[in-house]
Amino acid sequence: GESVGLHLPTLSVQEGDNSIINCAYSNSASDYFIWYKQESGKGPQFIIDIRSNMDKRQGQRVTVLLNKTVKHLSLQIAATQPGDSAVYFCAEIDTGRRALTFGSGTRLQVQP
Amino acid sequence: GAGVSQTPSNKVTEKGKYVELRCDPISGHTALYWYRQSLGQGPEFLIYFQGTGAADDSGLPNDRFFAVRPEGSVSTLKIQRTERGDSAVYLCASSPTPLTDTQYFGPGTRLTVL
Known about the structure:
heterodimer; A: mainly beta; Immunoglobulin-like; four-stranded antiparallel beta sheet; 10 strands; B: Immunoglobulin-like; 11 strands; globular
């Protein structure tokens, strides 16, 4: 299948460590943010979302932090597993539109 | 299946030809989106349907690109006079209602224009 993220920044972690993936966004009108995981040859898979009236949201092994002051979003993955290896994209939605605007992506490599 | 499906999974065509890419959204989802993803980049928005109508087509790059959703379910993305620069993965996504922001993606169609 197609290899996603050939030219993307890469984060390498050891299995069991925590991972932090960062994303900067530029549109101050964005009010909803999503993290997607994309494996090679597949479409983006929803991981977790957060609205602009929140600054933190937790899921199973994942936490998203939103800092609206500096327009920064982060995804924290606890106890990273080999199956977490993929490209991760943040995406945002502007209040007035329905289209997602994606960030540039980060490749996460988990070493067993 | 329960997810968004897209056909074909791969399409190879020659420059100047016409292609159609199909998307079957999740059953009951009223909103449908098309995106294009080039190698090493995030998906870029093309067009959004709410029901049968195109609510936002601002992402279509030019008039060679067109999409329809005649019955409010299946959608077809049509590309005329294909160019090598059209080569990309074309992704479809759907969401339950226009007020639901989470979009669920299909596996994509990889288009290669020779």
